[in-house]
Design goal:
- It catalyses: Na(+)(in) + H(+)(out) = Na(+)(out) + H(+)(in); K(+)(in) + H(+)(out) = K(+)(out) + H(+)(in).
- Keywords: Ion transport, Membrane, Potassium, Potassium transport, Sodium, Sodium transport, Transmembrane, Transmembrane helix, Transport.
- One of its GO terms (biological process) is sodium ion import across plasma membrane.
- One of its GO terms (cellular component) is plasma membrane.
- Helix content is 76%, strand content 0%.
- It has 237 residues and is mainly α.
- The protein folds into 2 domains: 110 residues, no CATH class; 107 residues, no CATH class.
- The mean pLDDT is 82.
Length: 237
């Protein structure tokens, strides 16, 4: 692919599509989260019933994901912001027993799902068909891997350090302790690991039932696997 042949209109279209997807997915997730908080607080149905409160929160979160997928939006982004809004509003409108139950249920489900993803990656990493389908030389694969790691390092730094400086500036006169440079480095380092979400997105976008015959798609899958293994083993310790 010749980068010089990419037109400015195509670049603007990609940026516009990204902003549209980000904005609409965020609004949808936040709206469903606020609606859930309203239902739990204002309506009698399910109030003071741990079973119903937990079920309502879980089903509404799943509903946000399904609606996003039906509307061709980002399901992960939608359910992410839905969860943020729920944690700030809906979670405080339920009983104490429901809070404890939801905390442990969602933590358990998250752990099981992430374990399953990594188990699948470990088993699929030995699938020689994908590595043969890539048709990329060892030198090219190393180059792709290096570029991805560099982008991860730079992208994480571009968010962590400026936002930390902004946070320190906005809370300069308050009693809140500033984020020191050492803490900023720790925050930057802690977020370098790529994991379940990266793998799930790659497989969802570039494979059909975990199988692909496209060399480019196979290269993306294998590169993602290598990056996840490397960042988990190196940055995870």
């Amino acid at each position: 692919m010749d980068i010089t042949k990419i037109k400015s209109g195509a670049v603007l279209k990609v940026i516009g599509d990204f902003l549209y997807l980000f904005a609409t997915s965020t609004i949808l997730g936040a709206t469903i989260g606020l609606f859930t908080a309203y239902v739990l607080k204002a309506l009698y149905f399910g109030r003071h019933s741990t079973d119903r409160e937990v079920a309502l929160m879980a089903l509404m979160a799943y509903l946000s994901y399904m609606l996003a997928e039906l509307l061709s939006l980002s399901g992960i982004l939608t359910v992410f912001f839905c969860g943020i809004v729920m944690s700030h509003y809906a979670w405080h409108n339920v009983t104490e027993s429901s809070r404890i139950t939801t905390r442990h249920i969602f933590a358990t489900l998250s752990f099981i799902a992430e374990t399953f993803i990594f188990l699948y990656v470990g088993m699929d990493a030995l699938d020689m068909d994908k590595w043969k389908t890539t048709q990329a030389s060892f030198k090219t694969s190393i180059g792709i891997f290096g570029v991805i790691i560099s982008l991860i390092l730079l992208g994480r730094a571009a968010f962590v350090f400026p936002l930390s400086i902004l946070s320190n500036f906005m809370s300069g006169n308050s009693e809140k302790a500033p984020i020191t440079f050492k803490h900023q480095v720790v925050i930057w380092w802690a977020g370098l690991m790529r994991g379940a979400v990266s793998i799930a997105l790659a497989y969802n976008q570039f494979t059909f039932s975990g199988v692909t015959q496209d060399p480019v798609h196979a290269t993306i899958i294998t590169s993602t696997i290598v990056v996840v293994f490397f960042t988990t083993l190196v940055f995870g310790f």
